[in-house]
Amino acid sequence: YVEDHCKAIDMVANGGKIGEVYNVGGHNERPNIFIVKTIISQLHDRLKDDGISEDLIKHVADRLGHDRRYGIDPTKIKNDLGWYPETPFEKGIVLTIDWYLNHEEWMEHITSGNYQKYYEEMYKNK
């Protein structure tokens, strides 16, 4: 969850050893399809839209070099800095979905391409 991740970054910036690498993870690895189905279920329940269902899932062939999993070992940040995620997956995914639903203008800005245009314009000569 983003707030847990931000706390980890703050702890590394303020207490980590220079040059060290700290993996930040939630101790809650889930398969991609589980996350997709959870998002669909949450959106369906919140928006009361029968068009939001698992029928929207389109299975595609894995890309070349497809990663089988994205699990990391965050033991070092726990042992060295005392960081451990506070937000369980089930709560964090709901909070994340709610944030996006409550920030539709931001979403439109991102999905319309304006976000990319802004950064291209701001940084094209730098």
Topology:
Layout lengths: L1 H14 L16 H16 L27 H7 L7 H13 L2 H8 L2 H10 L3
Quick rundown:
This protein is mainly alpha-helical.
State the domain count. Answer: 1
CATH class: Alpha Beta
Could you tell me the mean pLDDT? Answer: 92
Number of E-type strands:
0
CATH level-two architecture: Alpha-Beta Complex
Unreliable runs: none
How much is the radius of gyration in Å?
18 Å
Give the overall silhouette: globular
Order of helices and strands: HHHHHH
Q: Beta-strand percentage? A: under 5%
Question: Can you offer a commentary on this structure?
Answer:
This protein is mainly α and 126 residues long. It has one domain: UDP-galactose 4-epimerase, domain 1, CATH 3.90.25. Helices cover 54% and strands 0% of the residues. The model has no long low-confidence stretch (mean pLDDT 92).
Keywords:
126 residues; 6 helices
